[in-house]
Amino acid sequence: MPHASLSVSNNLKGVAFAVCGTALFTPIFAAAKFADGTIPVVVVIFIRYFSAFLLVLTIVLIKGISLSGLRSPKPSQHVMRAVFSMGSGGFSIYAATLMPLNEATAIGLTEGILVVALAALLLGERVTRRHWLAGLLCLAGAYLVLFSRLQNGLSFTEISGIAYAFLGAFSLALECLVLKTLARRESAFALILHVTGLCSLMLAGPALYFIVTQDLSFWLLAPFFALGPIASLAQYCNIRAYRLAELSLLGPVNYSWIIFAALLGYLAFGEVPTLWAILGGTMIVMGGIWLTRLPTQPAKTPKGRLIKALNLH
Asked: Per-domain residue ranges for the chain?
C-alpha cells in the first residue's frame, strides 16, 4: 500500500477510535443521573475508579509486567493528578444531576481555553491573540448555553449546577497539565494504575461511610462496576487513536462529546436542548476546534516559581 494511502487509512482508523472513546465516556458522566439520587456521587466515583484499578491491575499481572517497574520517580505528581481527576469527575458528574446533560457537557468543554490559560500561567507557554479570541468564542458560547435560564432567573439548584460544571472544567484543565508532564516519561499502564489506585484509596473512606449509613445493597451498586471497564476501554480507544492519527485531526473529534451528551440526554432523560443551548454549544465547539489548530510554544524562560509550586518540571 502506498505511503499516502496508509496515512489516510490510519487517520480514518484513528478518528473512529477517538469517536468510540468519546462516546464511551459520555455515560460515565451521566452515571449519577441514572442513579436518580439513590446513590451518592462519591460512591459512584469510587466504584468507577476501583473497578478500573482492579481491571488494569489484572491485565498487568497477566501480561507479566513488573509492578516495581511501574513505580514513578515523581509520586507527588500522581497524587496531584489524582486529586484533580477526582475533582473533574466528581464535579462534572454532580453537575449533570442538577442540570440538563447537554448543558453541563457544553460548560465542561470550556476546559480547552482553561488549559491554554493555565499553560500560559503555570508552564510559561506563549499563546497568541488568536488563542484568546478562540477562548472568548468558547466563553460566549457558554453564556448562550445558559442564556434562557439567566433570562428566567436561576434557582439555587441551577446556580449550583453551573458552578460545579465550571469547577469540573477547571479541575480537568489542571489534570491535563499534570498529565502532560507525566506522559512524557511514564507508560500508559503506570499512569492508569497510579490514578485509579490513588483515587480509590482516597475515596474509600467516604464511599464506605455512605454505603453503610445509607444501607446501599450490592445489587443496587453492581451495575456501576461496569463504569471502570467502560472507562478503561474508552482510554484504550483514545490511546489507539493518538497512535494512529495526527493530533491536529483528533483534537476536534473530542468535541463530539456534546453530540453524544445531547443524544443520551434526550433518549434517557427526555431532555430537549433549547435553541440557545444548541447555538452556544456550536460556538464552544467552533472555539475549541480553533484552539486545536493553534500551536503553542514553550517560553524561553519558564515562570519558575509557579512551575515549582505545582512541581511541574
From this structure: 3-309
